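<context>
A single protein, sequence plus fold
<entry> Chain with its tokenised backbone below
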Amino acid sequence: MGGALDTDTRGERPSEPRLGPGTGAQVGAANGLALKLIGRLAGGRPPAVFSTLARHRRLFRRWLPFAAALMPRGTLPRADTELVILRVAHNCRCEYESHHHRAIGLETGLSMAEIAAVAEGPGAGCFSERQAMLLRAADELHEEREISQALWDELSAALSDAELIELCMLAGHYEMLAMTLNSLGVTPEMDDQGRTLLGAPARFQAGLTEVEDGVYAWLQPNGEVGESNAGLIVGQDGSALIDTLWDLGLTRRMLAAMAEPTRHAPIRTLVNTHGDGDHCWGNQLLPGAEIIASEAAATDMRGEDPRALRLTLAAGRLARAVGSIPGAPGRLRDVGSFGRIAAQLSAYDFRGIELTFPTRTFERALSVEVGGRTLDLEYLGPAHTPGDAIVHVPDAQTVFAGDLVFVGVAPIMWVGTAENWIRALDRILELSPRVVVPGHGPVSDLEGVREMRAYWQHVLPAVRERIAQGSTPARAAAEVISSSEFQAKSFAGWDGHERLVASAHTIARNDRGESGRVDPRTRAGLLLEMARLAAAS
């Protein structure tokens, strides 16, 4: 089975939702509370399937416990459940179900190859006998609305009575749900919300995009805090991943989207461009891959701790509440400013992260072959961090620049020097790539590199001049940003200019002969100064 299911003569799906997520008035108080809880469990807004179905108030409250009894609290093993759901979603052409359950499938133990092979069906060579049997059951229920006697006999030998009943109801429930989602026009959140992880209107398309043949960028608009990019290079029989993301959920979602292009070329190599968590804290989800980074980045990774961000998030919530007190004195308002910037962390879930370090390092340069394609790695730091490196893919004329390049959002320099950052940009320009994938922001070309270079060429002497005249780094940053010279530049339209506060501190430290990362207390102080400037802008 499976071949006939791929033939599709049906009409086009709705391009816009016919029924969108319900408002508070449409879903009612009880359903609104349920949606709030679901959103917390999901780490953000409630998925659109819930907020749309909640418009039918009574039915939603009765459907929720039934759906939960099948998934995640069913008797079938969770990986089996997700395999059946993914096949149902494929058979019903339900992109919403597929989108959500690819990531859930990875979390429950399905491999990227298995998720990609669901579209091929039970005949795909990567499935066990049990998995193939479950897929056949999903297909028979879809095509014939019953399980044949021969397959029933096989299932009965492997499943309990409760699991047999659940299998039939699981497939039927998700067929019903797929029909409803397709008919209502409910589309995956990344495609239909048009919002960033931090809730702002997205200025460019999120997700996986092919930038050259077999070369992909994973983009997270708009490139603000934690909204980092990653990359994928697909070879003949193996692939390389460039960076993971800030939390496990985001990384799983990315890997699920990469399952199809890597179906016959599994990810064997992971390159971390530097040691910031939003580029490496998902490493644990690729246990079989060789992890490569510069020696400086590998050392830097060991100094970062997800627990510190969990504490910052908790402190930020308290600070936000304190700072919102009417008539709060200046210092308390400053605390509230910190709360506002720390609240950005609430878009991320730092639980369960196990720091997973490189298994191979290099000092200056390293060439590796992945699936017949050459990747040239170059260490160009320190600049943004101690360990900044780029990945050049010569046959695709593409450079993955990590956080040496930001597009549409201001950079932040934790280590410096700015002069070395400019030299790093000159090296990228020297390579003359056709495509540049930045660490944050949309895909660019050499023009994005030139604009980043122009930014540093402008702010470096401007900050130094004001500090020499007696301004503090924070004050110097504010003066530079508000100056007519800065405002006349194209980069004046970037987001996140408050980051120049931290960069100005680094420029001052470098000029005193200091280098390396600052301690956590100093970094917290810099975040507070950045928050003050952002609040005043």
User: Anything to note?
Assistant: The chain has four domains: 4-191, 207-304+351-406+413-445, 306-347, 449-536. Residues 1-9 have pLDDT under 50 and may be disordered. Residues 449-536 form one domain.
